[in-house]
Amino acid sequence: MEEIKQNKMATVPMHKLIWRMGLPMIVSMVLQSVYNIVDTAFVINMGADGIAGNLALTYAFPVQLLIIAIGVGTGVGINALLSKKLGEKDAHGASKTVGNGIFLGLCIYAAFLLFGLFGCRPFVAMQAGGNAQAAEMGASYLKICCCFSFGAIGFTVYERFLQSTGKTLFSTISQVSGAAANIVLDYVFIYPCKMGIEGAAWATVIGQILSLAVAMLFHYFANREIKNTFKAMIPSGTVIKGIYKIGISAALMQGLLSVMMLGMTSILGTVGQKETAELLQGSFGIYYKIMQFALFAAFGLSNTIISVLSFNYGRKDRRRAMDCIKFGILDSLIVAVAVTVLFECFAAPLSRLFGMASGEGGDAIQATVTSAIRIASAGYVFMAFSVAVQGVLQAFRYALFPLLISFLRLCFFVFPVAYLFTLAENVVDLIWWTFPIVEFLTAAISAPILRFACKKRLGGLSDTL
């Protein structure tokens, strides 16, 4: 058990540890958004079908978010439980957590395989209205992504095995390898091979499968703290309950991204003329994928908080737990400010990546996305605070509080505020103020929840072991 005793989460100074573990996690999480951004950039610029292709990707995106949501939610539960078992020096419990995590990943994939075979076409058609071209393209793209989603789901599970033992660099290398392959294959499949939107889907799933393969290699050959056995994969009600005590709320939190995307697309579909509605829907799809850079960067540090705080909370080390909370939130705010400045400075160049589609449609999308980025990025600091608080609450094994925060920022505040803006004449400009308003309101509610949780969970612990 010497390796567990020397785990860096127990010894490295906290202000260094958060950055050392957090930067690879940030890169890893941000690269998850690369798949959808790259697909969108190549598809919208593929010629006459580019505008319809972008709409198709927007209609498919809620299910892609749901795949990530359930995988990441399960992974968060695995992360919290596995880090806790390692902190408690429970080798058998750690092994069972890993084995049951693999079992759950297989079950999740089976569910999305069935949806890919039978549910894609009606789901996309429900959103597309009378746009038959976008509906057909969206259904083809989504079917491939769902039927081969084992790469995305499996990676979220194996990534957490590496993160829970502090090997975040390995998870980042795995993610980078898949993202790089996706970029290259997107170009090859869409342009030289002329595979259209189906080429974008194949590039995505191949990249995800490559990331999974690399992560598995790192886990089985480098994760010495964990004993891997087939016996550990036998379902255990106690372990699965322990994973989903945190994982179910994390999955629901991530799943609310899908609900928000679907709800906003529906609300924007009611705006004015068909051309205006499709402009807003397409622009929102692009903006939200760009915004995921900021959101997933916040999730990267939130996941760092979960790993480090779960470990030290399991050890009952109050001082390091408090330091983790302090530096985790502070570093989240620093990253958010940096991303905000970056987006404000480079909003127009980012938008031009998606504005090369032929005709006035491409110009309108570019102008609208630029406006969206500049306005909505004003709320990133508040978003980062709320997401960091969610990480603290998840590490403390609260289920309802993190879910409440997600529900507020992704549904409860968003839909009514967005709907009110759709009633204005200049909705194309005003609608984007929905996001900074909602993030501020959510952060204001998150602060007292954080104070309550810290007092409740850490009040009885000692500053020294």
Main features:
465 residues; mainly alpha; 19 helices; disordered N terminus
Order of helices and strands: HHHHHHHHHHHHHHHHHHH
Sheet-strand content, in percent, reads under 5%
Helix content: over 70%
Uncertain segments are 1-5
Distance between the termini: 18 Å
Shape: globular
Structural class category = mainly alpha
Major beta sheet summary: none
Oligomer state of the chains in this structure: single chain
How many DSSP E strands?
0
Q: What value does the average pLDDT take?
A: 88
In total, the number of domains comes to 1
Please tally the helical runs, counting DSSP H or I stretches of 4 or more residues. Answer: 19
- CA-based gyration radius: 22 Å
Question: Quick recap of the structure?
Answer:
This protein is an all-alpha fold and 465 residues long. Helix content is 83%, strand content 0%.
Structure notes:
This protein has helices at 2-5, 8-11, 14-44, 50-87, 91-118, 120-128, 132-147, 150-164, 168-190, 196-222, 237-268, 274-314, 318-352, 360-376, 380-395, 400-412, 414-422, 427-430, 434-458. With 465 residues, it is an all-alpha fold. It has one domain. Mean pLDDT is 88; it is low at 1-5.
Q: How are the secondary structure elements laid out?
A:
Layout: H1 2-5, H2 8-11, H3 14-44, H4 50-87, H5 91-118, H6 120-128, H7 132-147, H8 150-164, H9 168-190, H10 196-222, H11 237-268, H12 274-314, H13 318-352, H14 360-376, H15 380-395, H16 400-412, H17 414-422, H18 427-430, H19 434-458
Helix pairs in contact: 3-4, 3-9, 3-10, 3-12, 3-13, 4-5, 4-6, 4-7, 4-8, 4-11, 4-12, 5-7, 5-8, 6-7, 7-10, 8-9, 8-10, 9-10, 11-12, 11-16, 11-17, 12-13, 12-14, 12-15, 13-14, 13-15, 15-16, 15-19, 16-19, 17-19
